């Protein structure tokens, strides 16, 4: 799979949302023109923890190219990542998750259930936190620090930058509806917990 967008077989009008079955069973699914997609194996592409794409060890500087490749990125049920065009499919190495949330928006003013929290990713996708795009918090196994993520699409996640996470925490409120003291944010009538609060 070449890195020139003209050679990827990608077409803005093509169907690139073919479901990926466990362990890429969908490779047998016909691609463009009814022909099986060409399996390219492991591509020399790497997405680092900061969401930077690398080709043959060098960062890809063109944002348009990165966004184009990201638009055909899929995650298989076994956790591997694949670029799937109408003609080809190849595996991409991802250090953490493929996207980074670089900006947060919250409307309307206030922090109650009617609030909608949205994030912009490094590829300029805008995603609003809801049932299909949940927030989740993991913790660094060494430091215990929280690592926040939001689902962008089809199992592809974005990690919030530290500054964006601080903006999110600033809109946090306490909730006791489950019987425990939780700290989190509301978005589209759902409460997303960022953690529990210790009793005084």
From TrEMBL:
Pfam families: DUF1285_C, DUF1285_N
Stated name of the protein: DUF1285 domain-containing protein
Positions of the DUF1285 domain: 38-97, 98-194
Gene3D superfamilies: duf1285 like domain (3.10.540.10), duf1285 protein (2.30.270.10)
């Amino acid at each position: 799979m070449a890195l020139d967008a003209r050679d990827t077989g990608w077409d803005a009008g093509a169907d690139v949302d073919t479901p990926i079955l466990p362990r890429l069973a969908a490779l047998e699914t016909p691609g463009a023109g009814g022909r099986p997609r060409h399996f390219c194996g492991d591509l020399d592409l790497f997405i680092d923890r900061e969401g930077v794409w690398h080709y043959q060890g060098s960062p890809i500087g063109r944002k348009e190219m990165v966004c184009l490749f990201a638009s055909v990125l899929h995650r298989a049920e076994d956790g591997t990542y694949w670029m799937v065009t109408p003609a080809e499919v190849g595996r991409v190495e991802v250090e953490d998750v493929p996207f980074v949330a670089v900006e947060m928006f919250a409307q309307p003013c206030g922090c109650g259930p009617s609030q909608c929290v949205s994030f912009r990713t490094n590829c300029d996708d805008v995603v609003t936190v809801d049932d299909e795009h949940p927030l989740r918090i993991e913790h660094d196994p060494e430091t215990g620090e929280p690592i926040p993520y939001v689902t962008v699409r089809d199992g592809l996640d974005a990690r919030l930058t530290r500054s964006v996470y601080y903006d999110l925490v600033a809109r946090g409120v306490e909730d006791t509806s489950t019987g425990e003291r939780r700290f989190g944010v509301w978005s589209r009538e759902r409460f997303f917990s960022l953690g529990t609060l210790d009793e005084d």
